[in-house]
Design a protein that fits this description.
single chain, 94 residues, mainly alpha, two-stranded antiparallel ribbon, 2 helices, 76% helix, 9% strand
Length: 94
């Protein structure tokens, strides 16, 4: 699909959009996010196993850092999935 616009300036902007390439890219992103999510879950599981066997202030501090990492990774997953949804919706509208 080609969109031409005079825009606010003097020139003409030509924007070429390829839905097939976009959806292929989105599919690839979804696969990578799934792998990332699996990896995050594996890391969280291993951390939980380690921390369940240990105690003390140092371990509590490490656990806070690990929990922050896991929470941040899960937030990144969520935002990427939201972006994928937005791109898919935009593709349907175009």
């Amino acid at each position: 699909m080609m969109v031409a616009s005079g825009g606010g300036g003097k020139g003409t902007a030509n924007i070429e959009y390829d839905s097939v390439k976009t959806m292929e890219g989105i599919s690839s992103v979804q696969e990578q996010v799934a792998k990332f999510a699996d990896s995050t879950n594996n890391i969280a599981s291993k951390f939980n196993c380690i921390f369940s066997e240990l105690s003390g202030k140092s371990i509590d501090s490490y656990q806070e850092v690990a929990d922050f990492y896991i929470d941040s990774a899960k937030l990144a997953e969520e935002y990427i999935r939201i972006l994928v949804d937005i791109v898919q919706q935009a593709d349907q509208e175009i």
